[in-house]
Automatic annotation (TrEMBL):
NCBIfam families: PRK11259.1. Residues 9-371 form the FAD dependent oxidoreductase domain. Its cofactor is FAD. Keywords: FAD, Flavoprotein, Oxidoreductase. The keyword Zinc does not apply. This is Putative sarcosine oxidase-like. It comes from Dorcoceras hygrometricum. Pfam families: DAO. InterPro entries: FAD-dep_OxRdtase, FAD/NAD-bd_sf, MTOX. GO terms for molecular function: flavin adenine dinucleotide binding; sarcosine oxidase activity. Coiled coil: none annotated. Belongs to the MSOX/MTOX family. Transmembrane segments: none annotated.
Length: 408
């Protein structure tokens, strides 16, 4: 295929969840699509691998819930098309000090977006979740319907399979080292490390933690996307309590607001284990990581687990950890924009998903596909995701609830 006369309609660079979902969406629209990945497909060196991700409609920013609602519908459509499940629905429970600005913003964003919610006091929380969540004095809970668990590796495989079914060409072990514009015919030339190149009319860059270096090389534009090394952490549920933490018995996906922001999912992927990590991580180079959990984070989690779940969960030490990466922007908001420069609207960059993008993969794929197909993404305002926001203010979008943004 290298240096062949094939001119693709779209080349997607990076086959994490965003690139795979985008390739599915472009191929489905009948665009001749090539998806390129530097490592093996379904590798564990980026952000989209593992056993679980949370989907929830509760966000302090009021522009995310409509995207979650669309994504939720698209997740269901994709799993119906493939014929197996990647999306396990449950409820969502958010908690934190009643004066926490992010949590207050969650409540007003639910109100603005007509998302039904209930604010619960400590004793009501105790009743609602059969005594499992113990809230400190002065904390409140916010219960909503739209929570759930997504299976990341299985979901990426699903999008890749669907992309293939719709005629996309998928190729791994192909690191893109440059992307150029052919001035003679306007085509995009995507150059691989091995020396070959591929041609297309449009291009989408979904390179996760490598976005900053690739965009820097291609356009000389420094996007403030910082890779962070983080850990997924599993804890053992004490004998006799295992069933209480399952989706079948009404256990929710949850988040605890404040510094740090802690989140978790029901016991699902490993029976008898519950995932409770901290949102955030240590700055890293994507190709140089420790692969080890941060001990301070583990200590913080031990205290939190003891306080919230008492004897139901063994807070002594984690029983399993997995390394992963966030690609963090200063404001925690995504970057979804045309690349500009000599590429104008022929290339789209979708990155900086800041540790909360997985749930949005279907809608991001839909948006990126529409941007390359028609130049406009319908039904969504991309103002908060523009690259230019960092030129206007190096910290990006202003937020009134800094605690949440810092912890991301
Ligand atoms: C521990 C953890 C927990 C999370 N929890 C949640 C959650 O509960 N809910 C939620 O919504 N989100 C969550 N997220 C965030 C979510 O997983 C990410 O936002 C999402 O996976 C980002 O996907 P991506 O495709 O942008 O990046 P990646 O998955 O990193 O994919 C980018 C791909 O591009 C490839 N690539 C890069 N450069 C090149 C190149 N030059 N040539 C070819 N290929 C290249 C990389 O190898 C990689 O495969 C979590 C993330 C982590 C790490």
């Amino acid at each position: 295929m290298e240096n062949s006369s094939t001119v693709f309609d779209v080349i997607v660079v990076g086959a994490g969840v965003m690139g795979s979902s985008t390739a599915y969406q472009t191929a489905k629209r009948g665009l001749k699509t090539l998806l390129l990945e530097q490592f093996d497909f379904l590798h564990h060196r980026g952000s989209s691998h593992g056993e679980s991700r949370t989907i929830r409609a509760t966000y302090p920013e009021d522009y995310y819930p409509p995207m979650v609602i669309e994504s939720s519908r698209l997740w269901e459509e994709a799993q119906a098309e493939i014929g197996y499940k990647v999306y396990f629905k449950t409820t969502q429970f958010d908690m934190g000090p009643s004066d926490n600005k992010s949590l207050q913003a969650v409540v007003s964003s639910c109100r603005k977006n007509s998302i039904p919610f209930r604010v619960l006091q400590g004793d009501e929380v105790f009743k609602e979740y059969s005594g499992l969540f113990q809230l400190p004095e002065g904390w409140i809970g916010v219960a909503t319907q739209d929570g759930g668990v997504l299976k990341p590796t299985k979901a990426v495989a699903m999008f890749q399979t669907l992309a293939l079914r719709h005629g996309a060409v998928l190729r791994d072990g192909t690191e893109v080292v440059n992307i150029e514009k052919d001035k003679e015919n306007g085509e995009i030339v995507v150059c691989a490390r091995e020396g070959g190149h591929f041609r297309s009319r449009k291009c989408v860059i979904t390179a996760g933690s490598w976005t900053k270096s690739l965009v820097g090389k291609v356009r000389g534009l420094i996007l403030p996307i910082q890779p962070l090394e983080t850990s997924v952490i599993y804890w053992k549920i004490n004998p006799g309590h295992e069933d209480k933490f399952t989706i079948e018995n009404g256990f929710p996906t949850f988040a605890s607001y404040g510094d740090p922001y802690i989140y978790g999912t029901p016991a699902l992927e490993f029976p008898g284990l519950i995932k409770i990590p901290v949102h955030g991580g240590r700055a890293c180079e994507p190709n140089e990581r420790t692969w080890a959990p941060d001990q301070e984070t583990v200590e913080t989690l031990r205290e939190w687990i003891k306080g919230r779940f008492g004897e139901a969960v063994d807070s002594d030490k984690p029983v399993q950890t997995q390394s992963c990466m966030y690609s963090m922007t200063p404001d925690g908001d995504f970057v979804i924009d045309f690349l500009g420069g000599e590429f104008g609207e022929d290339a789209v960059v979708a990155g900086g998903f800041s540790g909360h993008g997985f749930k949005m993969a279907p809608v991001v794929g839909r948006i990126a596909a529409e941007m390359v197909a028609t130049g406009v993404a319908g039904g969504v305002d991309l103002t908060c995701f523009r690259i230019a926001r960092f030129e206007e203010n190096f910290r990006g979008n202003f937020k009134d609830f800094e605690d949440q943004v810092r912890s991301r």
